[in-house]
Amino acid sequence: MEQEKHLILVDGSGFIFRAFHALPPMHSPDGTPVNAVYGFTNMLSRLMREHVGTHLAVIFDAGRQTFRNDIYPAYKAHRPPAPEDLVPQFALIREATKAFNVPSIELPGWEADDLIASYAGVIALEGGRCTIVSSDKDLMQLVTEKVQMLDPIKQRPIGVEEVLTKFGVPPERVVDVQALMGDSTDNVPGVPGIGPKGAAQLVAEFGRLEDVLTAAPGMKPSKRRDALIEHAENARLSLKLVTLARDVALPEPIEALGCRDPSGDMLGGFLAQMGFNSISQRLGLRHVARPTPSPAAPDGDAATRDATAPTASPVKQPDFGPYETVTTTTQLESWVQRIKAEGYVAVDTETDSLQPRRAALIGISLAVRAGEAAYIPLRHQGDLENLVPPQLETAQVLAALTPVFHDDAILKIFQNAKYDLLVFQNAGVTGIAPIDDTMLLSYAQSAGAHGHGMDELSLLHLGHRPITYDEVTGTGRQRIPFAHVSVDKATSYAAEDADVTFRLWLKLKAMLVQNRAVRIYETMERPLIPVLQKMEWAGIKIDVAELQRLSTDFAARMKVMEAEIHQLVGRDFNIGSPKQLGEILFDEMNLSGGKRTKAGAWGTDSSVLQELADQGHALPQHILAWRQLAKLKSTYTDALLEQRDPKTARVHTSYHMAGTTTGRLSSNDPNLQNIPIRTEEGARIRHAFIAEKGRKLVSADYSQIELRLLAAVANIPTLQEAFALGQDIHARTASEVFNVPVEGMDPLTRRRAKAINFGIIYGISAFGLARQLGIPQNEARHYIATYFERYPGIKTYMDRTKEEAREKGFVETPFGRRCYVPGITEKNGARRAYAERQAINAPLQGGAADIIKMAMISVDRQLSDNDFDAQLLLQVHDELVFEVAADKADMLAGFLRETMSSVADIGVKLVVETGIGDNWAEAH
């Protein structure tokens, strides 16, 4: 029998923009931006591998002017020009299409959507079927039983049911809904006041657009009826604009679009030219290369290299599944033997909680090769209709795996290892080593370039979208616990996670050398995992009675504040309502400076209120004070009581190792890094963190570490001298800048110098300094200019760092950590200025983060070698908090001052200040 024709049409123009905005900046060996080219190439290679049709073409827009502009000149007229970095990629994407030996089709005067509509119509008439690779809603009008769509990012098919769910009408009525609602993106006018829901209701009730307009005069009097009558012609015009042409003369006959294998030489040459080494490897194309990372290519694909032409044809990579479900001791033992034979294994856990100390193991996944993975269900419970599925006992499985976990000859690979290690510790298995962590392998090389979650890394490096948690458990009220997911579904989901982790490890580990990230990963990130594991497991004790007193006191003070605020306004209102507050400030009080949000309400965030407060308005000052107290109450005094582990009487914060651009750790559940340092309330909250009876808390804090790094990296002799002599750095700066003696210095003068010192680290502007010090902008501008005159090296450092960020896409800490700054080439001035401030600060904040990590690792190793009876509990930016036996607190403090100050040599003396107390406030 003759094979049914299956035409695959790729909406090239639509995908280009999605890829450009979804992927971080990347450059080819000659410096050309290629992130959209990379995304397109990845998508096309996957499409040809996984969605094989008989015919294939990529459809592009030929230009902006089409027949729709003749009908309505304003159509798409407000769209800005393509981003500067995208322009050179249009031609390269067409070259990529040619390299894959895929027809590329475009036609002046017509949009790509019209060509897609016409080709889809012809193939359907010929009895074939069509898949449109796009998620563009404008193409959904074409969907039939013979014509379907495929979301290229989510790999989700879009058929009649999906269109009905999205629009509320079947595909043939989509244009009527679009004509009524209009489209601000394309300047399609529609009928004012009618949105998607209203348009769908009208079409469902009356039928086609013309039927709706005919029925309008007889509708119940309303604004909607009046709008339909008044804007009927706009609706008819909109229908013409949104309806795709299905009778365009085809530039190439369907017979010419038959699928063809690419030429290995042509495709390999193109991939080598672009520097897309991972795609070449995935397709089995061999070439010789000595890669040097591209400045802006976080995964090393777009890299400068010498490459010869490939000699092999593309080879299909292992599929993601099917995977094995391990339910017998024979299977389990077989996997243990396979792991021992390979010498490495990717491991993942499924649990019933995101808090590892409270999480029970539901299952364990293992992978030893790409495509070879298994899931071991442990506590699946079935549902009302199914019996509990067969599965091994947890203790039996852990007993079999523990020798593997403790075997120094077997590498255990995780994604976010700290979580899984804590889960295993909670299950009674400790000492798992050696380990690798794909999240940190990625983070060490490309902090700030993109996220480091498994799903995002899989899409970026493997071109594969893993099954999501929502897909197996449902969402919202329909979500079920993972223990109730069927074992078949759980296996597909969980084993795939281990498989993806293994494949990511193969790729990311190899990239460490070419991205010069070995030191960061091997000496800072990986050794820190067990340190943080011990900290989180230990937790810190809280004083329940003190927190309850604070919560009661805060509530009482808030009540008094509320009465004062209501008195200022002259009536009661909900202080916590941004909408009501905005109306009072800008509609009733007519204060200047108000801006409305996209939703139409007045903005009342802290920056708006602070600006009004700086102008001397009393109400915003009171609101800010009330909000601060409300936040402390909800975030700390109330939340800490709820987050206290009843088993330990302690709170166990969780440290996120890959969440910042600079390498800093962040904490959550609870967040202990945002407690105000200089306020009375912040000190009172710190009083509630206490040592156990017979023990003390010891705080060790790096003094002015970022200023010391600035003096070092900017090479400022006078600042270096001040630090070497132990002088008051702010007084010394005031003396240098304002030409006044240090002795008898006015405190206000020192405060201004301090504001400049710390402001410079964050790229402060004259406006920001003026606001901080309460002085005119001209005066602030003069202070900054004088500062740079006295310390020209700082200005040189700032200019050099910004230029480095623009050239490479990232800056580096003194220890070699790359901190990517994606917005550094933004055309928008405000966003670009923000990115420039990030670039200036990142080497300093990142350098401080590197030093504190080195200190944590060094101190942790030595604590066990010395009889301190101490445990590191908390890290808060530049401060470490320990709990120690009371009689050894002074000895520990001395050890910390010596060890932490010598952990790194930056050319400027590091100073560590320590404190001892029964609670954190006393120690700090």
UniProtKB/TrEMBL annotation:
UniProt protein name: DNA polymerase I
Domain 3'-5' exonuclease, residue spans: 323-513
Its biological purpose: In addition to polymerase activity, this DNA polymerase exhibits 3'-5' and 5'-3' exonuclease activity.
Reactions catalysed: DNA(n) + a 2'-deoxyribonucleoside 5'-triphosphate = DNA(n+1) + diphosphate
UniProt-listed PANTHER family: DNA POLYMERASE I, DNA POLYMERASE NU
Keyword Hydrolase in record: yes
UniProt-listed Enzyme Commission number(s): 2.7.7.7
Keyword Transmembrane helix among record annotations: no
Compositional bias annotation for Low complexity: 297-312
Key words of the record: DNA damage, DNA repair, DNA replication, DNA-binding, DNA-directed DNA polymerase, Exonuclease, Hydrolase, Nuclease, Nucleotidyltransferase, Transferase
CDD domains the record matches: DNA_pol_A_pol_I_C, DNA_polA_I_Ecoli_like_exo, H3TH_53EXO, PIN_53EXO
Domain spans labelled DNA-directed DNA polymerase family A palm: 682-888
Subunit structure, interactors included: Single-chain monomer with multiple functions.
